[in-house]
Write a structure and sequence with these properties.
Elements: H1 26-39, H2 57-65, H3 73-80, H4 84-90, H5 92-99, E1 108-111, E2 120-124, E3 130-134, E4 141-144, H6 145-162, H7 167-189, H8 193-198, H9 203-211, H10 216-230, H11 234-241, E5 242-243, E6 250-251, E7 258-260, H12 267-287, H13 290-297, E8 300-307, E9 318-324, E10 331-338, H14 345-348, H15 356-367, E11 376-381, E12 387-394, E13 399-400, H16 409-428, H17 433-440, H18 445-474, H19 486-492
Helix pairs in contact: 1-17, 4-6, 4-18, 6-7, 6-16, 6-18, 7-16, 7-17, 7-18, 9-16
Length: 495
């Protein structure tokens, strides 16, 4: 290290240089990407086939069920049995094992871990501007960037099949997603670090892209989805989830989807109730920044309930918390979701964070344009003696999603492209964007390869879904049906 005291006192010569960190030059980063392409040619990504020793997908679901609430497992199976796309949404662990058998360039980024089409949406930023971004980080972990791209691409193919699109339309949509990722990564590679960090995709731009060349009906449906979703805030959640018939705000009883804490506690748990809530508030507050600790201090705890969310998350501990500020017109609704080990960890190595809730929060902060300022975490030792980690976020804080059933083939391709662009920006913030861009090149060779992979995986996913349906029919697995259809299930995701 250069000695900063090397000049004699009183001299006015040039200051000594401070030894810098040794970053790679742009030329070295490009060379690294090109060398990776020599090792793993782009076309190899399309040549994947399932491993003959591949684990039974139903057994994977059974293993996951062992650490979940047994009362909710039939609901999870029922939701996943709804369609191949619903199965895919709940099968992140199944695909993680498959992705581990694929070729990878050796370049890494912070991964979403579950980057399918429904895990993208529109959000209010803390400044109340609207952006399009990823919205689910339960599985986030550093790993091969290709894995997120392949999960997104396969989801496009599977969703397009569910929508009844033909092969050409499906392939066009998949290639749009991958081309969106590739071209956006090339643009990001030319930007400065700060430009990348602050780049965002505004909602108006998303709507223009989807509306371009579409019929008026499709465009109006998409715009309506977004407008409706952005009106869904904490006050909307309050009106839908809270019962005030007795003059006191409490969560309503709507089992099994919403169950107040009063109905879940036995006598022993009731004795621990106050201690557990106080510990939650203490730990959660400590995980926030100083300014947001002050914000939280303006609210008092009122009530707690279990709330079922999503598809893959069903059966994990998920709660909603009601807090009040100045009066009953000033509610704060928080969602507590259990954070388990990422499905990527067996293949990418353990997280640097021992607290699994913090793993989710830190990954979300790295990948999202603007994260919820009340993101935090805490740890609970339950009555079973086991430790459970949670992350905390606001519930329904200006979040909107686009109903895939409202999209025609061209609109789906445009939406998929936007998702690909968004994923590229998230990876560019944490990965080797210059090297990845150099690896991808400026042709559509990678797009074609991933489209082939997506078709192969969609075929496999259909077989896996059929095995789940068969396991339910034979009595191997219990499943509970819900009123409504798959569209309703999708809208319930991550609420």
């Amino acid at each position: 290290m250069t000695d900063l005291r090397s000049e004699a006192p009183g001299t006015r010569g040039r200051l000594p240089e401070v030894e810098p960190l040794p970053p790679m030059s742009i030329r070295e980063r490009v060379a690294r990407g090109l060398a990776a392409r020599d090792r793993v040619p782009l076309a190899t990504h399309g040549a994947w086939h399932p491993d003959p020793t591949r684990a039974d997908p139903v057994s994977t679901l059974e293993r996951q069920a062992e650490s979940r609430d047994p009362a909710l497992i039939p609901l999870r199976h029922g939701r996943m049995a709804g369609s191949p796309f619903a199965f895919y949404r709940g099968g992140a662990a199944i695909m993680a094992a498959d992705l581990a058998t694929t070729r990878a360039s050796g370049l890494r980024a912070q991964l979403c871990g579950d980057a399918h089409l429904v895990n993208f949406g529109v959000f209010d930023t803390p400044e109340r501007s609207h952006v399009f971004d990823i919205n689910d980080f339960d599985e986030t972990l550093p790993g091969p960037w290709e894995w997120d791209v392949k999960r997104l691409a396969a989801s496009v193919e599977i969703a397009a099949r569910d929508l009844g699109f033909d092969k050409q339309q499906r392939t066009s949509a998949v290639k749009s997603a991958v081309a969106g990722y590739r071209t956006r990564m090339a643009q990001l590679a030319e930007m400065s670090n700060l430009e990348v960090w602050h780049s965002r995709l505004d909602v108006d731009d998303v709507l223009r892209r989807i509306a371009r060349g579409q019929d008026d009906t499709t465009s109006s449906h998409v715009a309506r989805d977004v407008r409706k979703g952005l009106k869904r805030n904490h006050l909307t959640a309050f009106s839908k989830l809270i019962d005030t018939t007795d003059g006191e705000a409490r969560f309503a009883r709507r089992p099994p989807l919403l169950v107040p804490i009063d109905d879940l506690l036995d006598d022993r748990s009731r004795r621990r109730y106050v201690k557990v809530i106080r510990e939650f508030l203490h730990q959660y507050r400590a995980s926030l920044s100083t300014q947001h600790q002050h914000l939280l201090d303006g609210y008092r705890y009122v009530h707690l309930a279990r709330k079922v969310v999503g598809v893959g998350s069903v059966g994990t501990r998920s709660m909603v918390v009601l807090m009040m500020g100045l009066n009953d017109a000033d509610p704060l609704l928080l969602q507590l979701k259990e954070a388990k080990r990422s499905v990527l960890e067996p293949y990418c190595g353990p997280s640097e964070y021992s607290h699994r809730g913090r793993r989710v929060v830190e990954g979300q902060r790295l990948m999202q344009t603007a994260s919820d300022p009340l993101l935090g975490w805490y740890r609970l030792r339950a009555l079973d003696g086991k430790v459970h980690d949670f992350y905390v976020r606001q519930l329904w804080d200006g979040k909107a999603s686009i109903d895939l059933t409202h999209l025609n083939p061209k609109a789906l391709a445009a939406y998929a492209e936007v998702c690909g662009m968004t994923l590229a920006r998230a990876h560019a913030r944490t990965g080797f964007r210059v090297s990845i861009a150099a690896y991808l090149g400026d042709t559509d060779e990678f797009d074609d390869a991933i489209a082939r992979f997506a078709r192969t995986y969609a075929d496999l996913n259909e077989q896996d879904h059929a095995r789940l349906v068969e396991a339910i029919g034979s009595g191997r697995l219990d499943a509970e049906a819900e009123p409504g259809d798959e569209v309703s299930d999708r809208r319930r995701a991550d609420r």
